[in-house]
Design a protein that fits this description.
16 helices, globular, single chain, two-stranded antiparallel sheet, 69% helix, mainly alpha, disordered N terminus, 343 residues, Farnesyl Diphosphate Synthase
Amino acid sequence: MGGDSVTTTTLSAVDTGSDAVREALRDAVNRLDDTIRPVVAYHFGWCDEHGRPVRGNGGKSIRSRLALLAARAVGGGGAAALPGAVAVELVHNFSLVHDDLMDRDATRRHRPTVWAVWGDAVAVLTGDAMLSLAHEVLLDSGSPQAIPSAKIIATATTELIRGQAADVDFEHRDDVSLAECVRMATGKTAALLAASAGVGALLAGAPDRTVSAMQSYGHHVGLAFQLVDDLLGIWGQPEVTGKPVWSDLRSRKKSLPVVWALEAGGSAGRELARWLARPDTPDEDELRGAAELVDRAGGRRWARTEAQRRVALAEESLAPVPMPPECRGELTDLARFIIERSA
C-alpha cells in the first residue's frame, strides 16, 4: 500500500497442505484435452507458452488454503477437503482468465495473460474449462457432501458473475454509490472466499451452524481482500504487483476507495469526479494528481480502516465455533496476511 506498511504475517505461517493441493490440481488439469490443458498449465505458472516446464509464481492460493484451514478447524483432515480446495482454486482462476480478457490486462504475475498469448476465444474456452472441471472434481470425489458442496460453489459462482457484471456496468456510469460498490465486491470477491471456508467445513463434516460461521468469516475476509486489492490497484509497487503504478486510475476504475472519495470526500471528491469525467488519456502527472485526490479525500484511509474492521468481524464470526487454538491462530494469521500483503 504505497510502501507505508510492512507485511509481518507471511503465507508460510498459514501454509497447510499446499503441496497436496498442487498435486491434486495438476491431476485435475491433466483431465483436460490436449488443446486446453497446456494453456491452463501456463496460466497456473507451470510452463511457458511453448509447454516447457518453468518454476513460476502460481499465485497466493488463498482460497484453497482457506478450505483446508476450515476443514482442520472443525476437526476434519485435509484429505476430506482436498476436492473442495481444488474446486475453489479452479473457479477463482476461471474468473481471473475472463477478468484479464474483459479488462484487456496484458500481464499477470509478471508475464503475458492467456488472451494476450492465445487470443480472446482461447481465453474464454480456458476459463470455461476450469469452471466445468471444478464441479467435476467435486462430484467425482465420492464425498457424501459432494452435491451440497457443489451447490455452494455454484451459488458463489453466480454471485461472482453478478459482481463482475456490476463492475463492468460501473465503467459506463458516473453515479455509482458506495453501497452498490460494496455489493459488487461482495459478489466479485467475497462470495468465493465465503464458499471456500464453507466448503472446507462442510466436506469435513461440520454441522450447518459451523458451516455458516465459516462462510461469514470468509465473507468478511473477502471484503477485506478486495479493499486491499483496490489500494494496491492505486498505490501498489509495480515490481511487486506486476501492474503499472496507478493501474486502476489509468482505467478510471470505480474501486472502493475511489467511490468513497467521490461520495464523502468533499471538495477533493468533487475535483476527483471532474477528473474521472474527462475523456482524454491521462499522463503520469495527472495520474499522480488523481491518486493524491483520492488520498486527500480520505479514500485511502477509509479503505485501510474498513479492511481492518472486516478482519475483526471475520474473527468475531469464529467466536462461537469450538476449535483448537492453533487452528484459530492460523485463520487469524490468514486474515491478517490479507490486509498486510503488498501484492
